[in-house]
Amino acid sequence: MTTVTIIGTGLLGASIGLGLKASRKIPDLEVVGSDRSPDHLRTARSMGAIDRAEADPAKAVRGAALVILAVPVLGLYDVMEDIAEALEPGAVVTDTGSTKTDVLRWARELIPSETSFVGGHPMAGKTDSGPSAASADLFEHAQWIIVPAVNASEGAVKAVAGLAESLGATPRYMDAEEHDAYVAAVSHLPLMASTALFRLTRDSEAWPELSLLAAGGFKDTTRVAGTHPDMAHDIAVTNRTQIIHWLERYREALRTLQEQIADVEDEEGLYRYLAQTSMEHEAFMTGQVGRVEVDQKGEMPEGGMDDFIFGSYIAERMREMTKRSEERMAAREREERMRREH
Amino acid sequence: MTTVTIIGTGLLGASIGLGLKASRKIPDLEVVGSDRSPDHLRTARSMGAIDRAEADPAKAVRGAALVILAVPVLGLYDVMEDIAEALEPGAVVTDTGSTKTDVLRWARELIPSETSFVGGHPMAGKTDSGPSAASADLFEHAQWIIVPAVNASEGAVKAVAGLAESLGATPRYMDAEEHDAYVAAVSHLPLMASTALFRLTRDSEAWPELSLLAAGGFKDTTRVAGTHPDMAHDIAVTNRTQIIHWLERYREALRTLQEQIADVEDEEGLYRYLAQTSMEHEAFMTGQVGRVEVDQKGEMPEGGMDDFIFGSYIAERMREMTKRSEERMAAREREERMRREH
Questions:
Q1: What percent of chain A lies above the pLDDT cut of 90?
Q2: Do residues A135 and A17 share a domain?
Q3: I want to staple A71 with a disulfide (CB 3.0 to 4.6 A). Which of A8, A184, A201, A335 is the partner?
């Protein structure tokens, strides 16, 4: 029998349990779950995400070949402390935390050297939390970042990569600092941007009216403001420097856009900015990610994206815009004149 | 036969045509469509969004009781100029533009006084554009803002409200300035926030890596960056002052959050900020909108939202956080000491 222990049977932990069992990659598998919340543990058990519930994390890891720590980042320190002495020599310990620099430091301090710590971060999730939101396919087509401790064995790294693959995810290797810098931009900054946007409108005196008018655009842009505060908080305090760096840059980017909008003499420049963003967004959403390879480039219009953007389409729009801008100017002048004459 | 003419058979225009016909509210209805794009017109016709296609807008409005202008905001000026002389006396003209102050001014100048202009703005849409993205139920459960011109007849206002209702939307009346202020906060600011966020990460040297790691949170928060540039541009230049006002406030809100994250002495304050935002976001998403009525309040925990937020849950978390924060501090000190000793 192979025992895999999952500490923390919330959305991620329960989804890993469900997915591991559905994959049937590990023969004679027993999944043991542990959680401070008896409710979560009961739900995870009754939905089949775990085979056995064990409230005490130290007892839960006994005999386990693989231990997955799926608790909020700041909870990892306590859990490592709790399980350290009970871990089997040769066991592999991994986690699902959203930041990695602090986590690897805690593992260096707390996880015994006869075991291997290999940090993990599945780039998947949803705003809903708890085991009832879990599903076996949560990680399908997701990236699963792997950050091995310096002393982790090759076998341990392969085991965690195998875990990711058996759940339908793609393993990607990087070091902790690299990881924290990238996710700050692509995950933590959107979280904070979304949170501040919701906070601002929610605090407005006009909120009763605004909330009635808020439609899809507002709801999408502010969706991650609903992230569980434990998770958002732990992310913020364990990736503080990187998040502050990106918030600074974001405010700068907003100022640039604001100045472009304010520049009445350069509506064409604003249009160019918006057209380029919209087209690059479409390319991203249709799968142009990573380093664009030659065969992907072949699908783009002749001369590449840039030439196309600043090419015929934009030129045509510019002509129209100049015409309309002149018309509106003329209309404004006519109106002014009428007002003066009356 | 009652003729309704739709100028602009893109996403909104074609959806109105489909919805109007599906509702069967107007007996013996003929929907005439006009569009500068022969492609759009052909598609709208073949999918049954319009009964008759007429490239020339002036010809299209002849005999029409109701004329719906569903073109990007800056296109409205040209269209009003084109159709003004051909409108039937007594006809009702409405639009679907995202801003209203300029539109009402153009209508005052161009639409003849024997006809009524009643501005409209359905708060629905999607990033995809064109008639092929249209559907009869696009406006169901949406708010449809109605901004009558001062000289619009009562019957004309009722006709436009009836149009909204027959498409499943709820009419809401306001004046142009009020409209533009509200949608700046709840629609245009999310558009610009999303656009600047995508632009910033897209312009990063790390974009090849970032684009691979970008998951649901990034995709939702930046979704409206894919808005058609014609629409985004026209919104920006016709609601410039309001948008700049909200961008200023947003940058201020981001700075506040950034300072809260940077304050290592007040992680509790950050947690309180995040917990309150997350809970209020959930209330919003579960339908607590508008002025909260007594019966809605009844569903909230005893003592109301605020007492609950700053009550037992938060207090419990605060104790935990303080403990963990002390532990991490101690761990850091131990590590420092070890480093010095080696």
A1: 79
A2: yes
A3: A8
**Higher local confidence (pLDDT), B305 or B243:** B243
Q: Give the single-character DSSP code of B63.
A: T
Domain region containing B72: 2-174
Is B197 within 8 Å of A253 when comparing Cβ atoms?
yes
In angstroms and rounded to an integer, the radius of gyration of the C-alpha atoms of chain B is 26
Specify the DSSP class assigned to residue B188: I
- Decide which of B297 and B341 is more confident: B341
Separation CA B17–CA B9 (nearest Å)? 8
Whether A199 contacts A173, CB under 8 Å: no
Q: Are strands B116-122 and B92-95 parallel, antiparallel or unpaired?
A: parallel
Candidates B204, B213, B335; nearest CB to A109: B335
For A202, which of B145, B280, B291 is closest by C-beta distance? B280
pLDDT of residue A127: 73
The CATH code of the domain that includes B66 is 3.40.50.720
pLDDT of residue B122: 96
Task: State the complex-level ipTM.
Answer: 0.84
| A132 shares a domain with A204 | no
Same domain, A151 and A218: no
Cβ contact, residue pair B335, A105, below 8 Å: yes
Distance CA(B85)–CA(B81), nearest Å, equals: 8
**Given CB atoms, is B193 within the 8 Å cutoff of chain A?**
yes
Looking at residue B235, its pLDDT comes to 94
Q: How many domains does chain A have?
A: 3
Within an 8 Å CB–CB cutoff, is residue A315 touching chain B? no
Task: Determine contact: A133 vs chain B, CB below 8 A.
Answer: no
Q: Which of B217, B251, B284 sits opposite A255 (nearest CB)?
A: B251
CATH code of the domain covering residue B318: 1.10.3660.10
A142 with A269, same domain?
no
Query: What mean pLDDT comes out for the span A57-65?
Result: 97
Model pLDDT, residue B67: 98
Could you tell me if A287 lies within 8 Å of chain B, comparing CB atoms? no
For B20-67, the pLDDT digits (tens) are 999 999 999 999 999 999 999 999 999 999 999 999 999 999 999 999
By C-alpha distance, the chain A residue nearest B233 is: A271
